[in-house]
Amino acid sequence: MDIDVTVVGAGPAGLSAAIVLARAGRKVAVHEWHARAGSRFHGDFQGLENWSSDEDVLAELQAWGITPDFLAYPVQDGIGFDAAGGRHAMTSDRPLFYLVERGGGPQSLEQGLLRQASDLGVEVHFNSRIDKTSGTAILAAGPRRADIIASGYIFDTDHENGAYIAFDDRLAPRGYAYLLVHEGRGTMASCLFSGFKQQRHYVNLTAAFFQQKTGIVMRNKRSFGGFGNLRLPRRAVQGHHPVVGEQAGFQDAMAGFGLRFSIASGVLAAHSILEEGDYEDLWRQQLLPRMKTGIVNRFLFNGIGSRGRHWVTRKLMQSNTSGRLHKLYSPSAPHTALFPLARQRFRASLRDPSCDHRDCTCVWCEHGTKT
After folding, report:
1. pLDDT (tens digit, 9 = 90+) per residue, 65-115?
2. Where do the FAD-dependent oxidoreductase 2 FAD-binding domain residues begin and end (predicted)?
3. Burial class of residue 25 (count of CB atoms within 10 Å of its CB; 0-12, 13-18, 19+)
4. Which of 66, 120, 316, 360 has an alpha carbon within 20 to 30 A of 337's alpha carbon?
């Protein structure tokens, strides 16, 4: 069939764009150079955050015409650990995030979006690399560098369902460690903003920490890893084509919870085509304010030192965690005032001197540089 729109990349941003376009009657072809959707992931659990906006993220997806036909388990409560090992009960008056699976499994986010796109008549071509595009296209090829990496284990367990997070530079420099358990399966990882070359060391410390604090027993452990690109795009158009997802830099600079931004950028690109609007105006209006806030938050988090991070994270883990996070992620006058300085300096703070690409086995050096 004749194709109206070509989408390059079958990740959440690209598939979301394809779904919105197909629902509007456009003929869409998606080209993915890997063998399957979600090839960067391994069945690991992640969080689709629900705190950066007043609207529930699943309701937002449905309003866009995207059915959450994938595992999306609401997590309203959890346990947090501060840098001193103190335990805090995190509570919320609404889901803090939705636990989702990434990768090629039938319940995964990618496979759920792929099924919807296929049911709507979208052509999806795997092992298909597009070097040049003609006509209308959306570019969604994924991250091009690593500013944040997550490394750990996926495993089987008899442990009860739960969500745990630890803020301790000894486990995850400038980042956090997490443990997610759902229906007999778990994901444990160290999320690093620095110290990439010592990735294995931090993963081992994280595993020992959660085993001690929760008593979890991990069976059939399999290593996994992922990476994310943090930057603020000056423009999100290349050759007149909208650029979406992490290829454009749509990510959460504060904590790497960028799925919501990524999907939203794909939807906005689709609307710009359907309505013959300006994609640059759309993402700047709807995504840029929260992205600027995230950059200021990350700049401050990096700059206040380990003691400052200990104090801030303890405050965040007190009552109504989602409300505190929503306030943190909401644009404000202080955020606006600090943004010029944060933008100037935050890029340098992300450069990790430990990862020199020499005898380095971090996720980015082993896998990301090949993309």
Report:
1. 999 999 999 999 999 999 999 999 999 999 999 999 999 999 999 999 999
2. 4-36
3. exposed
4. 316
